[in-house]
Amino acid sequence: MSEKRILIVDDDDEIRELLEFDVRASGYFVDTASNGLEGLNKALNNTYDLILLDVMMPKMNGFDVCKNIRQAKLAIPILMLTAKGTIDDKTEGFDCGADDYLVKPFDIQEVLLRIRVLLRRNQIEDKTALSDEVLQAGDITIFPETLEAVVVNKKVKLTPTEFEILYCLLQHFNNAVKLATLLDEVWGYDSNEDVRMLRVHVGGLRNKIEPDTKHPKYLHTVTNVGYKLTPFGEE
Asked: In angstroms, rounded to a whole number, what is the distance separating the alpha carbons of residues 79 and 131?
């Protein structure tokens, strides 16, 4: 298996060097950038398997870096590391296309865990894409190769995390899927602390597939359980 390539983008020299040391010691190839514009240029002109991305940086903030990477149709996993930890900040990060979010100060072992989870998920997606699998039920069709979904006749582009959530729910359509199951299948671990993160991603997914987000037709909340997808539009 080839060495995984990780780009670390952070303007804090101490944090960037700490991350570089520990991530490289874990067996990954590491490249770094000390501001957002440099990070974006490297992301667009090189091949990486994952990006660790700070938010508050000179020349270009992490949110804008993330937006530009997604606009370039790069599906590379992005893990945001930031001191901005409110739910609004996380929502903005996920709306930009981030896959995961850790708040500073963080434990380096938690960072390494999230890296392994995102790389594992992306590897699974790559294998799925090679099979050209198309999963369809009712009004919803998803295309793993392009991370797209078609709802009725509307095509939408999904983030890797939104795709994983929809893929999981579509495999269990018309049945309630527990929050713990979604967390385990999408992120590879079950943590109550990440339930809010899951809900933010579900909100983003609803914005893309629902005709009316206030009255969901497809993606329903099941109180005290989790979520249920009704691709045929049952209420």
From this structure: 27
Return the pLDDT at 129. 47
- Residue 218 is classified by DSSP as S
Other Cβ atoms less than 10 A from the Cβ of 29: the count is 14
Contact indicator for 195, 203 with CB cutoff of 8 Å: no
Query: Which amino acid, residue 101?
Result: Y
Q: Where are the alpha helices (DSSP H) in the chain?
A: 13-25, 36-45, 62-71, 87-96, 108-130, 160-171, 179-187, 195-209
- Condensed to tens digits (0 to 9), the pLDDT of residues 158-198 reads 877 888 899 889 888 899 999 988 888 777 665 555 787 78
Q: What angle do CA 19, 22, 24 make, to 5 degrees?
A: 100
